[in-house]
Amino acid sequence: MQITVTVNDQPYTREVEPRLLLVHFLRDELGLTGTHWGCDTSNCGACVVQIDAVPVKSCTMLAVMADGHHVTTVEGLEKNGELDPVQKGFTECHGLQCGFCTPGMMLTARWLLDNNPDPDESEIREAISGQLCRCTGYENIVRSVRWAAEHTCTPEVSA
Amino acid sequence: MTTSTPMGFGRMHRKEDARFIRGRGQYVDDVQLPGMLHGAILRSPHAHARILSVDTSAAEALPGVKAVITGETLAGLGLAWMPTLSKDVQAVLATDKVRFQGQEVAFVVAEDRYIARDALELIEVDYEPLPSVIDARTALAEAAPVIRDDLDGKKDNHIFDWEAGDRAHTEAIFERAEVRVSQDMLYPRVHPAPLETCGALADFDKVTGKLTVWCPTQAPHAHRTLYAMVAGLPEHKIRVISPDIGGGFGGKVGIYPGYVCAIVGSIVTGKPVKWMEDRSENLMSTAFARDYHMTGEIAATQDGRVQAIRVKVLADHGAFNGTAQPTKFPAGFFHVFSGSYDIETAHCEVTGVYSNKAPGGVAYACSFRITEAVYLVERLMDVLAYELGMDPAELRMKNLLRADQFPYTSPTGWEYDSGDYPRTLALAMEMAGYDKLRAEQAERRANGDRRLMGIGLSFFTEAVGAGPRKHMDILGLGMADGAELRVHPTGKAVLRVSCQSQGQGHETTFAQIVAEELGISPDDVDVVHGDTDQTPFGLGTYGSRSTPVSGAAAAMVTRKVRDRAKLVASAMLEVAPDDLEWTKGRWSVKGDPKHGATIQEIALASHGAVELPEGVEGHLDATCVYNPPNLTYPFGAYICVVDVDPDTGQVDVRRFIAVDDCGVRINPMIVEGQIHGGLADGIGMALMQLMAFDEDGNHLGASFMDYLLPTAVECPSWELGETVTPSPHHPIGAKGVGESATVGSPAAVVNAVLDALKPYGIRHADMPLTPSNVWRAIQGRPIRTDLAIT
Ligand code: FES
Ligand code: FES
């Protein structure tokens, strides 16, 4: 099947097998390997991307379902050479160790801040509760998101 | 958090973050080679069955399939079996029987991963199911089926008996002790489940004879040597590249059959072959941890002075004895089980048995079974406190080793290097507000509050940094680590080390070690690791050994460079070397500090035209191999506060206070992060993580739907404290910390839950304390956590 998916503001048209998972489409077809894969059961969240500005586990979607949609991956967080506050927050607060969960965590964090620019600790924990991190014990991820909230000059609330 | 870069130790941002936050890490599955093929493994649905036939013809006929490899193919190459790290053998692909559910049976190589999986469906295997051993306690029964009939003359499932300590002395003390308490406990089978599963990409170049293997291994050099030994390939023609690793925790130490299959696949097809396991494969077949059935006993005086401790262990090692640990110690470092206490004598006996489960044993941040040892002694201390009606903190304080007892030789022969345990426990209690917590608990109990409050403590001593050559090797390879430092003419440096980070931040901390010793910025030091062609030999990263061993190597090699720099400086400044003194980053003339040269100036001169003294080669390079004189002994005091709902059995961890003493902290930010991660592990193991089996050996925890891991909502905000007792024998006084929290925290959580359940007269219940297990315990019903029982 032929699909056209806009990924990080760039349209890609590809011929794909109907059963191809979106996560594999991004990684293997487009070479965007920042999106990871970590389980067979939609539990880990290593594969989280944003589809039309909403976090989605890209292992639960077929590539063909993304036809005509906008996908944002970790590679699209940095804009015009400027890191997203979330990316800066993860560095500032040591929000990552092995880095495997990090892209998914950051994309969920970006969505959270777009919709709730000043989340408290429990709102942050709730937002990332569908994703696993095996390294950080979550503490510094929470602090990283708080840092990003505190260092976003003009919070953009998405429509 | 600070943003400036210290000229050595201190908080600084991690160098590796720049690529990870941009999605530009390179994990093994991110590596793509031209013409690359994909492998997939067919696994056994049975726990124990004879293989009658394997028919691969339909799979081979599927378009896109390039090769199907079976045990028989491998047998033809002499590769059907491979040695394990415990001098046993393990089937790469089964030939005679399958011995656990999920065991590797056949390997398909195809054009893409989907076709490879399709082909698995087309392989016909005829099995004759056999009775299996699932409950380790039946493994040695007369009637038990013999699992390892591949071993010559093997008539039972016994692997080893091992003991440590003084049996006679311990028995004598027990005989006359005022108080003796015994407790059965199980440390159930768990799995480290790093977020990235295991995999390998093998590329064999027929023309050059060079084999390159990308593989997330914690021990790349050991892998290279083992591949050379197993496959008979010349070692200098093997290059192991361990790229970025998505967490390891001990699960990525050994060589798995899939790695060997990828290599054979590449040799057979002449193309690079990538194999990535899925999560179920990861949980079912790669190294598990624990599975220790323990009967512990403690002897004490009526007023709570502990005199002796002993334990009998039945250790379930699975179908192949594949534990990764120093050769002399089949139970790892379990015999450090007298823990942090001044106990006159101790004795342990461990019996290892085969069962129809996956092999492994030490694969989860356990510092070679110190998790089991700490859990045992810390549970026994609480059980004793329960029987004596004593406060568990008071009992611990009374028995902790005192600062003046160090260096201390334990009853089982360990030489603890340094510590001040009462100070650390006192700090934890102060941070927790221990007395207030107890008052709150008493008040809530008096008021008949439905929600049960529990306070749990644990105090742990770790023994890490394996290890001294004369005592420790793995498959004959001594546990030393190498380092190589080059300082370029402009004073920028490259450090090459044999250990490998799985998220610990070595690129930052090791640069900080060089920076501290040489007086340059960590930004001016690049750390190279994880590539056997580019780094010196060493045994890698596990058991919290990077800082104690490789970190020491990094410091020592930098000191060698500094010494060379001194000779060059003496030539530059035209003074005798003995007249020079070192201030960070600079050699200068004693008494005339203005007259000196910076390390950068010396670096340039060492590569330049200055006339060097006789015997000084020039350039600022050095190599070093560090053979640790002893282990290091980090320790800590943990306090956990929980609330338990007796109607649902739900446990909420309200607070967790952790005071760690890991000696000198190179980068406190990274140390704290590692502790956070280990504390979450403790909550996971104590409350939810479990690999259970049904009586047919079906794995009941083979996905993240069943094998539950803690998320952000189950974890509290960790409260950390620190004390610093440097290691006297480590060049920078550091002790290692990576596994401390995983080792120390499960006991604190379990002790807290059982403290909450005390009004019900419950003294002990096994992990994991899931809602249903807590509820069963409250109802007085038995719980067996390792087997599915109803
Ligand atoms: S890969 Fe685990 S949720 Fe998608
Ligand atoms: S940083 Fe390793 S899984 Fe989150």
TrEMBL record, chain A:
<dbReference type="InterPro" id="IPR036010">
    <property type="entry name" value="2Fe-2S_ferredoxin-like_sf"/>
</dbReference>
<feature type="domain" description="2Fe-2S ferredoxin-type">
    <location>
        <begin position="1"/>
        <end position="77"/>
    </location>
</feature>
<dbReference type="Pfam" id="PF01799">
    <property type="entry name" value="Fer2_2"/>
</dbReference>
<dbReference type="InterPro" id="IPR012675">
    <property type="entry name" value="Beta-grasp_dom_sf"/>
</dbReference>
<keyword id="KW-0411">Iron-sulfur</keyword>
<dbReference type="InterPro" id="IPR002888">
    <property type="entry name" value="2Fe-2S-bd"/>
</dbReference>
<keyword id="KW-0001">2Fe-2S</keyword>
<dbReference type="GO" id="GO:0016491">
    <property type="term" value="F:oxidoreductase activity"/>
</dbReference>
<dbReference type="InterPro" id="IPR051452">
    <property type="entry name" value="Diverse_Oxidoreductases"/>
</dbReference>
<dbReference type="GO" id="GO:0046872">
    <property type="term" value="F:metal ion binding"/>
</dbReference>
<dbReference type="Pfam" id="PF00111">
    <property type="entry name" value="Fer2"/>
</dbReference>
<dbReference type="InterPro" id="IPR036884">
    <property type="entry name" value="2Fe-2S-bd_dom_sf"/>
</dbReference>
<keyword id="KW-0408">Iron</keyword>
<keyword id="KW-0560">Oxidoreductase</keyword>
<protein>
    <submittedName>
        <fullName>(2Fe-2S)-binding protein</fullName>
    </submittedName>
</protein>
<comment type="pathway">
    <text>Alkaloid degradation; nicotine degradation.</text>
</comment>
<keyword id="KW-0479">Metal-binding</keyword>
<dbReference type="GO" id="GO:0051537">
    <property type="term" value="F:2 iron, 2 sulfur cluster binding"/>
</dbReference>
<dbReference type="InterPro" id="IPR001041">
    <property type="entry name" value="2Fe-2S_ferredoxin-type"/>
</dbReference>
TrEMBL record, chain B:
<keyword id="KW-0500">Molybdenum</keyword>
<keyword id="KW-0560">Oxidoreductase</keyword>
<dbReference type="Pfam" id="PF20256">
    <property type="entry name" value="MoCoBD_2"/>
</dbReference>
<dbReference type="InterPro" id="IPR036856">
    <property type="entry name" value="Ald_Oxase/Xan_DH_a/b_sf"/>
</dbReference>
<feature type="domain" description="Aldehyde oxidase/xanthine dehydrogenase a/b hammerhead">
    <location>
        <begin position="22"/>
        <end position="131"/>
    </location>
</feature>
<dbReference type="InterPro" id="IPR000674">
    <property type="entry name" value="Ald_Oxase/Xan_DH_a/b"/>
</dbReference>
<dbReference type="GO" id="GO:0005506">
    <property type="term" value="F:iron ion binding"/>
</dbReference>
<dbReference type="InterPro" id="IPR016208">
    <property type="entry name" value="Ald_Oxase/xanthine_DH-like"/>
</dbReference>
<protein>
    <submittedName>
        <fullName>Carbon-monoxide dehydrogenase large subunit</fullName>
    </submittedName>
</protein>
<dbReference type="InterPro" id="IPR012780">
    <property type="entry name" value="CO_Mo_DH_lsu"/>
</dbReference>
<dbReference type="Pfam" id="PF02738">
    <property type="entry name" value="MoCoBD_1"/>
</dbReference>
<dbReference type="InterPro" id="IPR037165">
    <property type="entry name" value="AldOxase/xan_DH_Mopterin-bd_sf"/>
</dbReference>
<dbReference type="Pfam" id="PF01315">
    <property type="entry name" value="Ald_Xan_dh_C"/>
</dbReference>
<dbReference type="GO" id="GO:0043885">
    <property type="term" value="F:anaerobic carbon-monoxide dehydrogenase activity"/>
</dbReference>
<dbReference type="InterPro" id="IPR008274">
    <property type="entry name" value="AldOxase/xan_DH_MoCoBD1"/>
</dbReference>
<dbReference type="InterPro" id="IPR046867">
    <property type="entry name" value="AldOxase/xan_DH_MoCoBD2"/>
</dbReference>
<dbReference type="GO" id="GO:0005507">
    <property type="term" value="F:copper ion binding"/>
</dbReference>
<dbReference type="GO" id="GO:0030151">
    <property type="term" value="F:molybdenum ion binding"/>
</dbReference>
